[in-house]
Write a structure and sequence with these properties.
The complex is a heterodimer of chains A (about 280) and B (about 300).
Chain A: H1 2-33, H2 38-44, H3 58-64, H4 70-101, H5 107-119, H6 126-135, H7 142-146, H8 153-163, H9 169-176, H10 181-210, H11 213-218, H12 227-233, H13 241-262, H14 264-271
Chain B: H1 6-12, H2 17-43, E1 46-49, E2 52-55, H3 59-63, H4 67-87, H5 89-99, H6 106-118, H7 121-131, H8 139-146, H9 158-186, H10 190-198, H11 203-214, H12 216-231, H13 235-240, H14 254-264, H15 268-296
Antiparallel strand pairs in B: 1-2
The chains are: A mainly alpha (about 280), B mainly alpha (about 300).
Chain lengths: ~280, ~300
């Protein structure tokens, strides 16, 4: 019996080793190719036939040379991600708190609206939204990217769930002590919600950083576009596009991988937050 | 204590505070969701040229009765069905295997499987477009050559296009769905398996009669996100074909056609009609799902 278990262990381990290897293959391929000239890719295709004696960091040097828009895009994406994470966390926390801690008229109706927004793919409304953004005069402006999604239903849902574990008597005690309704939120609740901010910050951060379709529609000026849109624009094989594309793609995921290694559990919690709880 | 103004007292009262808290949502909901929905329905009956709109009745919808739209509809639905069919059983089985008590280094494998989900769809699209390139040296063609096959122009023919799209989907989402299943599995009490062992149930029987039924809530959730994600798929195809222009529309989806009409050809009327149809499909699926969940809901 014991021996059988051991073989099973080894078989499972080997199976997953192969699965993980296949899973990592595209990324390894990308990383390895970032050390060879982009013209090789155009001529021979993306593959592992790399002459390692010729491998160099030229592509990365090109990224940092300032001769292209790469770092502008990086900066734009970083700025938008940071602002959107901060605002979406704060505003959604307010809303989630309102739903979790109070009873008020139309509460169920309002919460049903949250669920409806979660259920309908945002692609359905990109055209009217595009027209609205033009009408508001925020086309080609980072607020045009952020404003429509500044309150995230997913986050509201999560914060409400998180706060539903906290007793309402706690609030009454604070009220008796003379705390205002907003004082309770800022001084007592926000600090209590900190652990959930980490996971939700990562959820929002990943979706802002990787967002593609909407930023592509909103931004028009080449220096103002975000990183994913910029990388996509390099996909046509002209000039040194591929040099920047491959090294730039690597450089776009490396920071996230480092963060992932450090804050793994928050990443997994954040990115699977929609899952059924209990 | 200084006397508070009437307004301040109003704003700080326990009755008004909740509305202040949910105000950000109400505002964005009305401006950036409700209004666009209404306006897309209205536009779908209009010819829109800049600021000028004229009512054209059902003309936009009639225009949609064309082979390209049918094809994009068929593509989206096919993508949705197949992605549901692969993105549920594969992650479920992998999660069950990973959760086995004979498994070593669980944490490591779990994290590695999750890595693709961290890459943006654009980076994934770049790698896959190049891997499935038409050159003889493109990675997938080398793989074919290794098994004695001839190089293929992957992104030209429907069959190979679908293979590329589903491998991309599988690559990016297996880790995430597996994570849902792992957390579902961890909520199943180990006692159940122990008593099943004592009763002499085989592992296959245990999977069939304990794991599978108890994972149902997870499966319902994964199914939901796969349905909506599948129906709204566009970016993957856009990146694989480097634009909204697959040969002979092999990779054109509903949203792709919406984008083509609305954004590329600036025909907001027809684009909106497509949006409305997609909305109707999504609503129908939601209603079906609510009805099913209502009927089979276990007592809570």
């Amino acid at each position: 019996m014991k021996k059988k278990n051991k073989t099973l262990s080894i078989l499972l381990f080997l199976f997953f080793a192969v699965v993980v290897l296949i899973t990592m293959l595209p990324l390894i391929l990308l990383l390895a190719s970032s050390f060879r000239p982009g013209s090789d890719l155009m001529r021979f295709g993306l593959n592992f036939d790399i002459d390692w004696t010729m491998a160099n960091l030229d592509n990365y040097k090109l990224l940092f040379s300032g001769q292209n828009n790469y770092f502008n895009w990086y900066k734009n994406s970083l700025l938008i991600t940071v602002i959107q994470v901060v605002l979406a966390l704060f505003l959604s926390a307010c809303v989630g708190y309102g739903f979790a801690m109070y009873d008020f008229r139309f509460k169920n109706l309002a919460f049903a609206c949250v669920l409806v927004v979660m259920m309908i793919p945002t692609e359905v409304i990109i055209l009217p939204l595009y027209r609205l953004i033009i009408g508001m005069g925020i086309m080609d402006n980072m607020w045009g990217i952020m404003l429509p999604y500044i309150v995230a239903p997913m986050l509201i849902f999560f914060f409400r769930q998180y706060l539903s574990g906290i007793s309402k008597e706690f609030l009454d005690a604070a009220r008796v002590d003379g705390c205002t309704e907003y004082g309770i939120f800022f001084r007592i609740m926000l600090p209590l919600m900190k652990p959930s901010f980490a996971a939700m910050g990562i959820y929002q951060g990943m979706s802002s950083w990787n967002n593609f379709l909407w930023p592509m529609i909103v931004m028009r000026t080449q220096s103002k576009i975000t990183l994913p849109v910029g990388l996509q624009s390099l996909m046509s094989p002209y000039g040194n596009n591929y040099d920047i594309l491959i090294a730039g793609s690597c450089f776009a995921i490396i920071p996230i991988l480092i963060l992932f290694v450090c804050f793994q559990s928050y990443f997994i919690e954040g990115m699977t937050a929609g899952g059924v709880k209990g | 204590m200084e006397k508070k103004s009437v307004f301040r007292r109003f704003l700080y009262s326990q009755k008004v505070a909740p509305y202040v808290f949910i105000l950000p949502f109400i505002l964005t909901f009305l401006i950036f969701f409700a209004y666009p929905i209404v306006s897309t329905v209205v536009m779908s009956f209009q010819k829109v040229a800049g600021e000028n709109t004229t009512f054209v009745g059902l003309k936009n919808y009639k225009t949609l009765m064309n082979p390209v739209f049918y094809k994009s509809m068929k593509n989206s639905i096919f993508y949705m069905l197949v992605s549901c069919a692969i993105m549920i059983p594969i992650p479920m089985v992998l999660a069950t295997m990973l959760n086995s008590r004979h498994m070593r280094a669980k944490g490591f494998f779990r994290s590695m499987m999750f890595v693709p989900a961290l890459t943006s769809v654009v980076v994934a699209g770049v790698v896959f477009r190049l891997m499935f390139g038409e050159l003889e040296g493109s990675f997938m063609n080398q793989v074919l050559a290794f098994f004695g096959g001839d190089p293929v122009i992957w992104l030209r023919k429907p069959l190979t296009v679908w293979i590329a799209l589903f491998i991309l989907c599988l690559w990016r989402w297996t880790g995430v769905n597996m994570m849902y299943y792992l957390s579902g599995l961890q909520q199943i009490s180990g006692d159940l398996y122990e008593s099943a062992n004592i009763d002499g149930a085989s592992s296959v029987q245990q999977f069939r009669y304990i794991t599978l039924p108890l994972l149902k809530p997870t499966t319902v959730y994964v199914l939901t996100i796969s349905i909506f994600g599948g129906l709204a798929m566009f970016t993957e195809s856009y990146l694989l074909f480097n634009g909204n222009k697959s040969p002979n529309n092999v990779g054109t989806t509903i949203v792709g056609y919406l984008y083509r009409m609305g954004m590329e050809q600036n025909n907001l009327g027809i684009g909106s009609a497509i949006g409305v149809l997609l909305l109707v499909i999504v609503m129908i699926i939601n209603v079906i799902q609510l009805a099913l969940n209502g009927t089979f809901k276990k007592g809570e």
